[in-house]
Amino acid sequence: MAVEGSASAAVVLHRRPWRERDLLLDCFSADAGRLRLLARGAATGERSALLQPAIPLLLSWRGQRELKTLTAVEAGEGRALALSAEQLWLTYYLHELLLRLLPLEVPLPLLFHHYWQTLQRLSGGEAVEWPLRQFEAALLAELGVEWLFDGEGHRVEAQRYYRYDGVALWPVAGARARGGVTVEGRWIAALAQSQRPPASGLAELKRFMRQVIDHWLDGRPLRSRLLYRQMVVRQGIRDRATEC
């Protein structure tokens, strides 16, 4: 956990104006996890330009309540990433998952590192499907999802199919389960071991991970998905492989 007043590597996930001159910030910090900050006098000027989503920052804050006060901000290591419209949408998707699923003030330094790795891979032009699935798996693992063992403690078998019931993975007979999406064990193992599967495996993982995430969201829709569909219509995009 970050010591009050010390600088912590962080990123702004979302910002909104508060009163005339202030900003309310939702941030993700390497040392403190997800946190909420009040940035006084930061609605305009140099600090406003810096306090934008997806920019590496060093933040300091004080306070014991849920909403803390930002005391200092400076540019962090690395530089802001040049992101296309599609990559900005993907960043919004990552941020929305973090905002909706992470508890407040739980340090998750490995997930923070994974977040930046994912952004760098996306901005570098890597095909998006595999980095997104890896990030989703890392996030869900932090929430307690076990990828290598089923609900009875047995290791996931490559040739079996599995469903997720909100608690654990369970083997099913055949490739279909009533009322849910299944995934082949070999693709789960590939995900857990960072071994990129072929296109068919990625497609299967995408359908499965979407159902798992929807469970954790309690059925509440993601705004980023809606915005993506609007972008598809507006720009006439035919390849919807990046839709989450």
Task: Provide key terms for this protein.
three-stranded antiparallel β-sheet; five-stranded mixed β-barrel; de novo design (two linked rop proteins); 2 domains; OB fold (Dihydrolipoamide Acetyltransferase, E2P); 244 residues; 7 helices; alpha+beta
Characterise this structure.
The protein has 244 residues and is an alpha+beta fold. It folds into two domains: 8-75, Nucleic acid-binding proteins (OB fold (Dihydrolipoamide Acetyltransferase, E2P), Beta Barrel), CATH 2.40.50.140; 85-235, Recombination protein O, C-terminal domain (de novo design (two linked rop proteins)), CATH 1.20.1440. The chain has helices at 46-50, 85-101, 109-123, 129-142, 185-192, 199-216, 223-235, and strands at residues 8-18, 22-29, 33-39, 57-62, 67-75, 161-164, 169-172, 183-184. The protein has a five-stranded mixed β-barrel. β6 and β7 (169-172) form a beta hairpin. The model has no long low-confidence stretch (mean pLDDT 89).
Query: Helical element count?
Result: 7
Low-confidence stretches: none
Just name the CATH architecture of the largest domain. Answer: Up-down Bundle
Please identify the top-level CATH class of the largest domain: Mainly Alpha
Approximate strand percentage? 15-25%
Described by strand count, sense and barrel closure, the largest sheet is: 5 strands, mixed, barrel
Per CATH, what is the topology of the largest domain?
Answer: de novo design (two linked rop proteins)
CATH superfamily of the largest domain: Recombination protein O, C-terminal domain
Derived structural class: alpha+beta
Give the H and E element order.
Answer: EEEHEEHHHEEEHHH
Strand numbers in spatial order across the main sheet: 1-2-3-5-4
Count of DSSP strands: 8
**Rg over alpha carbons:** 19 Å
N-end to C-end Cα span:
32 Å
Oligomer: single chain
Helix content: 25-40%
**Outline:** globular
How many domain modules? 2
Q: Overall mean pLDDT score?
A: 89
